[in-house]
Fold this protein.
Amino acid sequence: MNDPIRVGQLYPAKIPPKTSRGTTAPAVGKESFQTVLEDKMLKFSGHASKRLEQRGIEFNPEQLRKIGSAIDKAAAKGSKESLLLMQDMALIVNVRNRTVVTAVDGGSMKDNVFTQIDSAVIVS
């Protein structure tokens, strides 16, 4: 009876915290479907959206799939900021956030210098 009680002795397994509705919160380390979906989605920054609109660039679903695949390849190699060369356009992409930062069409690409990138992916 004189043995000291240690934290974790009464409850050896971790107890998930309660949410405001009284249900248990998702287990730590398990991501929600929404989080996983958002991590896989391709996003466009405000600047990129404006450039796409100004230059009349539109993507079809197949092109978006190829861009997503190119980002996955860049991420697998540890890239952070990547230049994607696709047909007659170039995209600068933040790989970690899966966000297109800017877009350049073929006419604007001539004599252009791309800085602050650590990789380039040629998308066929």
User: Anything to note?
Assistant: The beta strands are 43-44, 81-86, 89-94, 99-105, 119-123. The chain has a mean pLDDT of 82.
